[in-house]
Amino acid sequence: SSGINAEYGKAHLQLSHITKVVIYPRTDECCAHKINGTKVSLQSGSDDVEQCGHVNHVNGTDKYEISCGGKLGDTVIIEHDKEFALCEVELYGNYAGRTEL
Q: What is the C-alpha to C-alpha distance for residues 14 and 47, in angstroms, rounded to an integer?
């Protein structure tokens, strides 16, 4: 897949009770480090944005797990102050009575 690219912005995804977000970054030499500092947050409706955590880049790491601790949110926000590229994002939690997404 071509992945999710967000240049100086945000990628928004709609969900519910989130336990964790797993981010698979680009791993090539040109771009792997650009994931450093990427923030993962949740928002529920018009409520305040609640931060889950952020990515600390480590050379050779092919995935980063950010815990959201089951916080309620219908929007997952993945953002960075600079250009960044994601290959894949997995969201885990509860939605409409189901236990895993």
A: 14
Per the document, the length of the chain is 101
Taking 3-state DSSP, the helix, strand and coil percentages for the chain, each rounded to the nearest 5, stand at 5, 55, 45
Q: For residue 86, what are the contacts with CB-CB under 8 A and spacing of at least 6?
A: 3, 4, 5, 6, 11, 23, 24, 25, 26, 35, 78
Mean pLDDT, consecutive 10-residue stretches, the chain (101 aa), reads: 46 68 90 91 86 94 92 86 87 61 43
What is the model's pTM? 0.76
- Residue 41's beta-bridge partner residues? 51, 77
- Sign of dihedral through CA atoms 44, 45, 50, 56? positive
- Looking at residue 95, its pLDDT comes to 57
Cα angle 69, 76, 52; round to 5: 35
